[in-house]
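Teaching note: in complex prediction, the entire set of molecules is handled at once rather than each chain in isolation. The prompt given to students was simply: 'Predict the structure of this complex.' The entities are:
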Amino acid sequence: MMALEGFRFRRGESFIHRSDPRAKFLLSFAFMAMAIAFVKLKFLLLILALQLAILANGRCLKDWIRSLKGLVPLIALIFAAQVLVSWSWVSALTYSVRFVAVTSTMSWFLLTTSPDDLGLSLEQVGLPSDISFAFTMAIRFVPVISYEFQSVYDAQRSRGLELEKGSFVQRIRKYVPIIVPVFIETIRRTYEIADAMEVRAFGAKPKRTRLNVLVMRPSDWAISLVAVLLLLGTVFLQLSNAKVPWINA
Amino acid sequence: MVEIEAKDAWFSYGRGVDALRGVSLRIESGERVAIMGENGAGKTTLVKLFNGLLKPTRGEVLVDNVSTRNSSVAQISRKVGMVFQKPENQFFAETVEEEIAFGLRNFGFKDVSKRVDEALAFASLEKYRGKSPFSLSGGEKKRLAIASVMAWEPEALLIDEPTIGQDLSQKVRLAAFLKEISSRGKTVVMVTHDVDFAAETCERAVLLSKGVVIGDDKIERIFSDAELMGRASLLQPSMARLLELLGVDKPAPGLLGIGEVEKLIAGTAKR
Ligand SMILES: Nc1ncnc2c1ncn2[C@@H]1O[C@H](COP(=O)(O)OP(=O)(O)OP(=O)(O)O)[C@@H](O)[C@H]1O
Ligand SMILES: [Mg+2]
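The expected output is the structure of the full assembly:
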């Protein structure tokens, strides 16, 4: 559950918090594309460093680190698999760093973008409000479900459940007493929320009015421009097979 | 027999949220204690420290003189059972019977079916043994949650808000239930806002406010201090207020039950 800490919104007033979700999304997407396209340790470290700078600006490095700690088993798995496949430490390290770089693109975006703004920007991009609403809800409920998971885990631990003990298969089976209550509660809540929304006239009018409207500021346009250039560069390098030092040579 | 002790225990949920700020208290074996205080006072946090679900960020919590830091939740829960506020949070089994057996199996008991029978009888849930836990009423769910912990007979029982959403007859039943547990020599620690219920079932009250203990004494002494109660967002029990209104002498220790109050008023009326 710790792994989720770096993927949920934290309120803040930093530059990156105040930037437009659309611009941030473009930048995050550009970073992801580059990290996937160019498998070069130096370059990946550079991308990672840039994202760490963004995280530092948003004052959410701590949450990112917590997430990273939660992801250690997965990173170790990637590392081990790569060592087995290629017999190369450098390659193993590269792939591990790539994994961290790619997950970080989502991390800083979600850490600094409120689900409401995200939904709003989806709507303003032209998505039907039902769909953007469902999307926003899904993201907003990640922490709720993670909290729920913790309470159920606590209740079962108090009845002697020990996840750390037993063989692999036994351990998997031990998740049943945790998953079932979380699942049931989630389904039950879904119905309740649907009712609660309906009694407040959700969907009564096809076109809803908005409380806030997102406006792109000059800095947002600048971020978007950088992101688009990075994306175009990535596509160009991929198609042309050109070799550039630091990036893919 | 089990002794629970908090020694200058602090707990923080991170980001400067200090839920407990230096709590020291000792609960002797067999006591019935009500932990009370306003919303967010830190009551749930405190009982979670008692069975090791949370470890103090500073200070210590000792169960039988062993720091909870050095034991697993399962080890502590074997002695100090905990019933959560929302029973739905723990139900997963197909039947009531299975739900009760869960803890027993985890702790490796050999006489599971015998203990399940006893727990069912104890909670008067025999006729539901084959039913789904989710099909029970709110009160029955609460009793099942308690029974599923009592089945392994922990030395102490921690209950978070036992009376929320319970009707009168369920409350009466629950009170009898808790007294029965106590009469077996078990410690009962409950978190509650229900002063009348606490007066009925507990002998000691601990008042928490903003993570600090502001009162810890015999319950009738705490409950006769309106000012102290007010600081924990609590109103004195109706009996105490009634006696005050009627101008009857300050209730002597142990004078909070309806029966005693009735006698007292009758006695005053005759005079
Ligand atoms: N999981 C958590 N993460 C962060 N803060 C928490 C968490 N749980 C509780 N808190 C905070 O810790 C403080 C104490 O909470 P706690 O649940 O112990 O209060 P309580 O006395 O049980 O309140 P209530 O009567 O409402 O149940 C509160 O300020 C609460 O907001
Ligand atoms: Mg509570």
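Point out the following to students. The pocket of adenosine-5'-triphosphate (ligand 1) is lined by residues B 13, 17, 19, 37, 39-45 (CB under 6 Å). Residues 21 and 89 of chain A are 38 Å apart (CA to CA).
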